Amino acid sequence: MRLLCKGDLVPLAHAAAVAEAEPIEDRRASWLFTEEPPAEADRFFRAFASIDSFTGAGVGEVERNLHRWQGPNGRAHPFRPHDRVHLAVHFLRAVAPERHWSSPPEVRFSLDPQLCERSVGLFAGVRRALLVIHPGSGSLAKRWSRSGFREIARRWRERAGAVVVVLGPAEEGEADAWTEEGITVAAGLDLVGVASLLARCDAYLGNDSGVSHLAAAVGTRGAALFGPTDPECWRPLSSRISSIRVEPWTGRDGAPAPQAVETIERAMHEASKSP
pLDDT tens for residues 13-50? Predict the structure, then answer.
């Protein structure tokens, strides 16, 4: 299968043998929005059996081009559903409307074990129960209390566990805030490295973020925290990841509610004991 996707996802798609992936951040993406696409665009897009786009719904150029290249098999869909369903169900209903999708399937893939060892060699010698925390998210509003994450990390270390805090590009400037005895900060990992680390850890804790979905995909046990977003629509697709609606929600710089800390710690303990 040929897959056009964001460039940072290409190595991950190859590592998981999902598809022959190519980055879409080049002139081909702009052709979709061009009033008069070049002949090269016609040759490229007409080679597909069908095209479903989740960007450009209601945009005249996009809808005309899709029809030009694919006729009735070229469709533009709204990115978000109109009703309260998981986003994956919305996508599946759009691309396969002949099936009656009521709940999303779990998403799982495996990584090459040798690739995993090369990607996370720094952590290969860890023999204690390993908790991976990703305190970031693409939106600041979706980030739970930083001091709350630190408290969960402290309690995990008290049980003789090890903690790695993964920081993505949006959080790399926060490394100093996590530098303390017993915590290893992992910044600058690509998605293959993050997935490899998640695949070998004993538990994971993060916000509503892409990394939480990645943890679910590689079979990690743990929890994803939700505040302003609805887990019914955005939860990671794995029975191994608990989606916890934290109430009251505390933002990144606030002090967490004690009952929230207790709930999350229990989830982490249960995750570490599950087979």
Answer: 888 888 888 898 888 889 999 999 999 999 999 999 99
Containing structural domain, residue 90:
2-95
Query: What is the domain count for the chain?
Result: 2
Round the CA-based radius of gyration of the chain to a whole number and report it.
Answer: 21
**Residues 129, 29 within the same domain:** no
Last residue of a domain, one of 95, 115, 142: 95
Residue 220 in tokens: 């990690």
In-domain check, residue 239: yes
d(CA 258, CA 275): 28
Is pTM beyond 0.70 here? yes
Please tell me the distance from the alpha carbon of residue 64 to that of residue 75, in angstroms, as a whole number.
Answer: 10
Give residue 124's Cα distance to chain centre. Answer: 23
Q: In what order do the strands lie in the sheet with 241-245?
A: 183-187, 162-167, 130-134, 203-207, 222-226, 241-245
What's the rounded Cα separation, in Å, for the pair 2 and 238? 25
